[in-house]
Amino acid sequence: MSYSKKLYIAYVWNMFSKLIIRGLGLISTLVLVRLLTPADFGLVAIGIMVIGLFKVLSDIGVNRYLIMHDNPTDDHYSAAWTLNLLSTAILIFILVLLAPFITHLLDEPQVTIVIRFLCLINLLSALKNVGLIKLEKEVDFKSVSKIGIYAKFVSVIVTILAAFYFKNYLALLLGTAVMVLSQLVLSYTVSPFRPKFLLTFPPGMMSYSGFLVIRNLVSFSRSQIDVLLAGKLGGANSVGQFKVARDFSVMPLSELVTPVMQPFFASLSQLKHDKERMVEKTYQILFLAWSVIFISLACFISLQSEFTRVVLGENWLEVGDFIGILAFLMIPFVTQSVFYMLYDLIGKTKNSIWNDIYGLSAIVISFLLFKPSTLIEFAGLRVIVGVSSFIVILTLAKFFLPVSLRKIGLVLAIPLVSSLVTLFTVLYLKRVWEIEVPSLALIFYGGLALVLYALVFSVILRLIRGGAAVFILRLLPELVFNWLKKLKVL
Prior knowledge:
Helix 2 (38-58) packs antiparallel against helix 9 (203-231). The longest helix has 33 residues, at 3-35. The chain is mainly α. The chain is built from 21 helices and no strands. The model has no long low-confidence stretch (mean pLDDT 82).
């Protein structure tokens, strides 16, 4: 089987599994938001944020090192597994001791229970079979996807039953524990590889991992600092509202675009000795990612009220005022993720950290300067920082990466223009023809937005000429290109 075909199959399996997992997760969330309060979600979010910071310190990048290594041996995999287990165990032990002090600092008495429970879960997660990285390196995402589907299915059932029984945050913790245990057991069922405890570490692994710890720490702090600051506006309740709103607003990125990133990173690693093709593949990833994200952004902004009422329910109506604008964050998030791949592959990982340093600093400084008093004000401030971060990401890419801002502008233009036309058209139609039933409005205007976006997108493709046309058409996947030709769009 050719590598391109394996890559396509990997993409399909990743998308298939993510759709199933998100579907199961959505069913679970629709039940949970009606049984639990925003404070319950906020309490667990605080625990995840705290332990996530320590998890980042223990995540020393050995998985990425294995993927980028041309020919890793079994000892490389065992050494990576051992290193990950030891670093996790040490930091988890420290966090267990610090839990009461963190609880006092955050003024949330129940956080100690949450943190210590999550510590145990993460320690079990570190035992997961590193052989899954072997499968990922071989672009065998079918087996890896099955693990995610089975584990999520069992977890959803347990979480919903626990929510009916406990009616508090314990249901979320129990569901997380079941999912981790399922993944642990299935990882040794799916992969025949058996890691061994090995204290001999390749020098390259340690030197590569060292800086990634720093970058991951800054990146995690940047991605989670807004959740912590939201707590300053109203404790666990505000954290829950902001966290749930942000998670749903970036769902197209996490559930549609991110699954593509894993097989594409594997494919980029195969091209690291061919810089020209690698950069062209980067443009393609950006084009496909932005095409999905911009239509999602238009839908979220124009239908945020209807989405909140239908999907989240009456207990979450307050987030309907800002969930739409938070979708802007998908743009800098995905752009930075794509460029990070390129930074790593061309050996400029250290230069990439400036993106997160700016983002983290800008969020904290703007919060201290403008002192938002409501979640709506804070969400608006967060989006402004996100837009400025996007500009900084592109500027740094111009200096440190072999990319052209002109070509990036061409990649950006089509989805941007298409989404703007779609957004203003839907907002106008909603004003002149109001549909009172939220579910019908969501279905009708959401479907209309998708159709309109596709039409405008196709028209722009037909209008472009010359070198720009050649460049853009080369970014289209072969299946999409052939389909558009049959429809006489091209």
